[in-house]
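Allow me, if you will, to draw on your knowledge of protein folds for a short while. A protein sequence and the structure tokens that stand for its backbone fold form the material at issue. I would ask you to consider whether the tokens describe a fold that such a sequence might reasonably adopt. Thank you for your consideration; the sequence and its tokens are set out here:
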Amino acid sequence: MTNSPPLWLNSSKLIEYPEALKFMEHHVHSIRMNQTQEIIWCVEHPSVFTAGTSSKAEHLLNSFGFPVYQTGRGGQYTYHGPGQLVVYIMVDLEKRQKDIRLYISTLEKWIIKTLSHFNINAEQRPGRVGLWVKGKNSREEKIAAIGVRVTKWVTWHGLSINVCPNLDHFQGIIPCGLSEYGITSFEELGVKATLSEVQAKLEKNSPF
């Protein structure tokens, strides 16, 4: 395969979480074998909680009856649901820099640049993966999450951006194990945008 830019895919329907895992497993293997192009896949999921490799059972407070899946990505519990843009990134770090910390920082800076187009000032915080904004009463609130997995230097899983999800559903978990911070969204901040508009800015600003 040539070293061309990743193929961008967008799903117009809700994608069940196990279907996404199966898709990523297949394509990560194919990318490793140099049999297919790198892929960036934008999806929405039905409401679901996922547990990363550092998750603790006591951080699942109330499942709301949603499915709960163990997954091989880093991090702790997170929520996915309608109104949240989930971006699965399957790229080969062998062709770039074999540095996972740098890769995560690249994702964070990518989100920051994208959100700036919507006049949202998101920031990195030392020791806290993800992107943070000043919400109500100047409280720091998380607007985007990152959880990655790397298999023989091919990345999978990725990032999520809260555009207009039901924020009440985040009360079912202690997101990323951080109880002292809130969760916010474009909608909560009074910013009107569709998932398609956010995806278009992500694609335009892609570092890959």
User: Anything to note?
Assistant: The first helix runs from residue 17 to 32.
